[in-house]
Design a protein that fits this description.
- Helix 1 packs across helix 7 (237-247) and helix 7 (237-247) packs antiparallel against helix 8 (253-267).
- The protein has 295 residues and is an alpha/beta fold.
- The protein has a single domain (2-19, 33-294), classed as UDP-N-acetylmuramoyl-L-alanine:D-glutamate ligase.
- It has a ten-stranded mixed β-sheet, sandwiched between helices. The protein has a four-stranded mixed β-sheet with strand order 3-2-6-7.
- The chain has nine helices and 14 strands.
- Helices cover 30% and strands 27% of the residues.
Length: 295
């Protein structure tokens, strides 16, 4: 299987605090901090590569020191990197405040734009792809239609979509497989049902340590959270969840949802983005402890 992932790769500073700050003047002490690879598309790509999937990551990078750091972090077996030049030469950067309960605030330091329209090498990668994972980014919007024209299945992760905001709408509407978080949804089941009724073949709504719900053409699934003894960092857990679901194609839906839960759980055991330490054997073993059932 060949997968094209399009979207963000960044160099981030992650600051761990006991709780997210209230909106007032104050001083906080960080428990720890580090710099590292960021970006939802990078998190998916590194986890897919770890799970043995042939993945191409298309992203926007500058010509600065941070771009070199991103390239170095993405120099992995099975991962091909296609880059477009960032306007202004600056690579995407965030400061992420990470609270002990898993909540997060991302402060964007740089959010560069790339060239208009998909470059020829990205379209060639789309032609060769079995699946296109198109993340929330301006560069992904024209690829939604291009993938449809080519008959390439589209997977989208719309994160904390509220079902109302305009930006995520084209992604939710184009997705064959759709992932969303319950964080901002007033009625997650209604959102999921609406997307399947509109044409998605599988929609999964994750809810952190409470697991996930999913709906396909045959009905609802309830997905338990894989057991984790030590939560180090939740950054990229959702990206790993999608990677586990995608990397397990060819087995039953229940087993694939268990793989997704297991890969997401492995992501929270490391300070690195996603689950670059995952293996197929390790995810398969952990997946056997995940309860997935029809409801």
């Amino acid at each position: 299987m060949q997968v094209l992932v399009n979207g963000a790769a960044a160099w981030n500073t992650l600051v761990h605090v006991a709780a997210l700050p209230e909106p007032r003047s104050q001083m906080l002490m960080a428990s720890r901090h580090h710099d590292g690879l960021g970006g939802t598309s990078a998190g998916k790509a590194v986890t897919l590569a770890a799970l043995g999937v042939d993945v191409t990551l298309s992203t926007v990078l500058g010509d600065d020191d941070e771009a070199d750091l991103v390239r170095g972090a993405l120099a992995l077996d099975g991962l091909r990197l296609l880059t477009q030049p960032a306007a202004g030469g600056r690579t995407e950067r965030h400061v992420n405040l990470m609270a002990d309960d898993g909540s997060r605030v991302s402060i964007y330091l740089e959010l560069p734009s790339g060239p208009p329209g998909p470059p020829a090498d990205v379209l060639a990668a789309l032609d060769a792809a079995d699946v296109a994972v198109l993340d929330l980014a301006d560069s992904s919007v024209p690829l939604l239609a291009a993938a449809r024209e080519r008959g390439v299945p589209v997977w989208c992760d719309v994160h904390d979509d509220d079902g109302i905001g305009a930006y995520a709408r084209p992604f939710a509407e184009a997705a064959d497989v759709l992932l969303v978080s319950a964080d901002r949804l007033a009625d997650p089941r209604a959102y999921v049902r609406a997307r399947v009724d509109a044409g998605s073949t599988l929609v999964v709504c994750s809810d952190g340590a409470r697991g996930a719900i999913a709906l396909d053409r045959d009905g609802w699934w309830e997905v338990g959270a894989a057991p984790v003894t030590d939560v180090v960092d939740t950054n990229g857990a959702g990206d790993a969840f999608l990677a586990g679901l995608l990397a397990s194609q060819g087995i039953g839906t229940a087993e694939r949802l268990a793989w997704a839960s297991a890969a997401g759980a492995m992501a929270v055991t490391t300070s690195e983005l996603g689950a670059p330490h995952a293996t197929r054997a390790a995810v398969a073993a952990l997946a056997r402890s995940v309860r997935v059932c029809r409801v």
